[in-house]
TrEMBL record:
It is an enzyme of class 1 (oxidoreductase). PROSITE patterns: ALDEHYDE_DEHYDR_CYS. It comes from Actinoplanes aureus. Keywords: NAD, Oxidoreductase. This is methylmalonate-semialdehyde dehydrogenase (CoA acylating). One of its GO terms (molecular function) is methylmalonate-semialdehyde dehydrogenase (acylating, NAD) activity. Its EC number is 1.2.1.27. Residues 14-477 form the Aldehyde dehydrogenase domain. The lineage of its organism: Bacteria, Bacillati, Actinomycetota, Actinomycetes, Micromonosporales. SUPFAM superfamilies: ALDH-like. It comes from the Bacteria. GO terms for biological process: L-valine catabolic process; thymine catabolic process.
């Protein structure tokens, strides 16, 4: 059983801790590795390494930084398959989906390759006689990223390529459930020519996270994970005077109107609910079927859900893999049970699924629960598994009101052929990312990603222009080079011209 160590200052180290956490292969249910859990001293070592590296990296020219980014892009692109295999073995998702995640991360690296353009300041000539004003942005220092299990490569890549391109150094604390992808990516940064100490990985749990939040040497925290932890991170990091963006959980609704194309909608809903076993923050976990859309939709989605091929992520025939841990499987199955007890109708039941040859794997089959009421646990809880809850509504306004009364506001979608209804939806719904006949409206890397309400704490969304803004701060310079032959014109009045 391999031990997964920290990557600090360009070296692997086990650090000072004796604490370890098991890393499972969700398809077999077997422990395959253990990961070291950092102490406060280990985190301090990583922050110190990053602080030392900041002195020279923050002074590296734009050309030098861009060259490293382009090299990194080439290396990640060449190793998509390797990274996907690492992800699949620890997360459980199927290989094609894992490769898709790396591809989306790659797009953020490509965005960050354009950093000279993104960091261009502004210049105003002759704002007053002989006076010019210009602005530029500088890096913050040591930035930290704390990331969830569900996208072990992509979510960290929402952060570190942008932070590093801006001239910061970075300490990543990935999920302890699937930590290996981060160490692999650290090796690619080094191969790309990134100086040691600019990118560091510390593994750990709450102790490591708290050490980062408390550390005076950390300037900014980017967090992605569940809402209770996002709220905690935002409060604690803000109180410590750090810049913080904390993206939380989700409960994404898709409204289906009677005028939507049934085959198109059912296919896309099935994919959006069960892809990656529903362990996506942009998964559609709730369908809101309006009026006559409900019954035919339920018939078709139930058939398609039953046909999803569930199996180990490494098997190319599998369309959906296991969930991440045995605890996740138990929690999901118990929530399905509570829905049934509270009066919802389980049309397709994924509980108790076993896959021949993988009897100990953490598999839950696609599940469709109809007639869900907003008071039920299956509606109020973020299930984070392959479960589609279906609420019935009588019209589009009732459906929009339901979405707006939900505490989360990450993503949402509408299926319709009515431009008028779609426009009413896009203007009326209080959610950060909106799809129109697009069930998972993840913005491209050159836009910014983020939800509203309890899905994001902090002001700035992640990657894209807001990512560059988050990882830099502006200086505005007012400059005058007086002609020495003219007499001094200083006065006590406010200058006006
Ligand atoms: P999580 O909140 O349990 O863990 C996220 C990170 O926080 C991990 O690195 C973990 O080690 C750390 N952590 C856990 N408990 C902590 C504690 N008590 N104190 C300090 N740190 C702690 O989330 P998860 O289960 O790994 O990921 C799934 C969640 O992430 C879901 O809620 C999902 O919606 C959310 N998510 C959101 C987005 C988004 O963009 N909004 C994207 C991906 C995942």
């Amino acid at each position: 059983m391999a031990t997964i160590e920290h990557w600090i200052g360009g070296q692997f180290t086990a650090g000072a801790s004796t604490r370890r956490s098991p890393v499972f292969n969700p398809a077999t249910g077997q422990r395959q590795h253990e990961v070291v859990l950092a102490t406060t001293a280990d985190v301090d070592a990583a922050v110190q390494a990053a602080a030392t590296a900041f002195e020279s990296w923050s002074q590296a020219s734009l050309s030098a930084r861009t060259k490293v980014l382009f090299n990194f892009r080439e290396l990640v692109n060449a190793r998509v398959k390797d990274i996907a295999e690492i992800i699949s073995d620890e997360h459980g998702k199927v290989l094609s989906d894992a490769a898709g995640e790396v591809q989306r991360g790659l797009e953020v690296i490509e965005f960050a390759c354009g950093i000279p353009q993104l960091l261009k300041g502004s210049y105003s000539d002759q704002v007053s006689t002989g006076v010019d004003v210009f602005s530029f942005r500088e890096p913050l220092g040591v930035c930290a990223g704390i990331t969830p299990f569900n996208f072990p490569a992509m979510v960290p890549m929402w952060m570190h390529p942008v932070a590093i391109a801006c001239g910061n150094t970075f300490v990543l604390k990935p999920s302890e459930r699937d930590p290996s992808a981060s160490n692999y990516v650290a090796g690619l940064w080094r191969e790309a020519g990134l100086p040691d100490g600019v990118f560091n990985v510390v593994h750990g749990d709450k102790e490591a996270v708290d050490a980062l939040l408390d550390h005076a040497g950390v300037a900014a925290i980017s967090f992605v994970g569940s809402t209770p932890i996002a709220r905690y991170i935002h409060q604690k990091a803000s109180a410590a005077g750090k810049r913080v963006q904390a993206l939380g959980g989700a409960k994404n609704h898709a409204i289906v109107l009677p005028d939507a194309d049934l085959d198109f909608t059912a296919g896309h809903l099935t994919a959006a609910a069960f892809g990656s076993a529903g362990e996506r923050c942009m998964a559609i976990s709730t369908a809101v079927a309006v009026g006559a859309a409900g019954d035919p939709l339920m018939e078709q989605v139930s058939r398609m859900a039953s046909e999803v091929i569930v199996g180990p992520g490494r098997d190319p025939r599998s369309e959906m893999g296991p969930v991440v841990t045995s605890a996740a499987k138990q929690r999901i199955e118990s929530l399905i049970g509570s829905g049934e007890q509270q009066g919802a109708k389980v049309l397709v039941d994924g509980r108790g699924l076993t896959i021949p040859g993988h009897e100990e794997g953490f598999f839950v089959g696609p599940t469709v629960i109809d007639q869900v009421q907003p008071s039920m646990d299956v509606y109020t809880e973020e299930i984070f598994g392959p479960v589609l809850s279906v609420v019935r509504a009588s019209d589009v306004d009732e459906a929009i009101a339901l979405i707006n009364s939900n505490p989360y506001g990450n993503g949402t979608a509408i299926f319709t052929s009515s431009g008028e209804a779609a426009r009413r939806f896009q203007r009326g719904v209080r959610v950060g990312m909106i799809g129109i006949n697009v069930p998972i409206p993840v913005p491209m890397a050159y836009y910014s990603f983020g939800g509203w309400k309890d899905s994001l704490f902090g002001e700035q969304h992640i990657h894209g222009p807001e990512g560059v803004s988050f990882y830099t701060r502006a200086k505005v310079i007012t400059s005058r080079w007086p002609h020495v032959t003219t007499p001094a014109d200083a006065s006590l009045h406010f200058p006006t011209a």
